[in-house]
Amino acid sequence: MKRDIRYIEHLQEQGAVLTEEQAIRFYIIQRIFEQQDYMYQNKTHSVPNRIVSFSQPYLRPIVRGKAKTPTEFGAKVDISQAAGFLRIERLSFEAFNESVDLIPAVERYKERTGHYPERVLVDQIYRTRENRAFCKKHTIRLSGPKLGRPKKDQTVDKQVESQDNRDRIQIEREFSLAKRCHGLGLIRTRLATTTLTSIALSIVSLNLSKIQRDFLCAIFREVFLAPIELFYQSEASSFEKLSFVQ
């Protein structure tokens, strides 16, 4: 590869001009060679901004630590949920620490609604000291145990803690639903822009399905459940009148 790169550079010095597509591919080839040569010379298996796909050079290896797939390739998305609707807080092909997105997400929630949320349900990675201090300052209940050893006289509301854990699982269900029914688990686009657009459209589709579901449930209650409730209420009142006469 080093020899072929030298040949192309020599031809360019003699006046050869590459097309735009050829120039982009040649740049990617040079970057891949530099990264592979760096890892070989330094006897390492990692390099900053490592290119793992020739046709999709924007992809990066993201270590997830899962048993089945310890390393994944694709976009990483950080999503929040409020009132049943999902919102993309950050979307990037680079690996990032999502814990730093909590404070900006809460501030954006305040800009939309005019007040801070009553509680924030998060995973362990979000429960940093900075995030805990921010939530404490604005009287926001952060789900999960407190830092340090529990005090002897500390009382924990098991019911509230259990309810927070059940509500937090809802975001995991939304991820699963988006992958199974809204195309998030089958992104087949090749360009970076179209890939990010497909992910965003999956989230939009999931929110639209919630609107449709709520609308149909409201119609079902008005058309079917309301007459049934009215019928039982009338029957109960008739029974009370009959019992009074007897």
From TrEMBL:
Listed InterPro entries: Tnp_DDE_dom
Domain of life: Bacteria
Domain (Transposase DDE) ranges: 120-208
Protein name: Transposase DDE domain-containing protein
Species per Swiss-Prot/TrEMBL record: Alkalibacterium iburiense
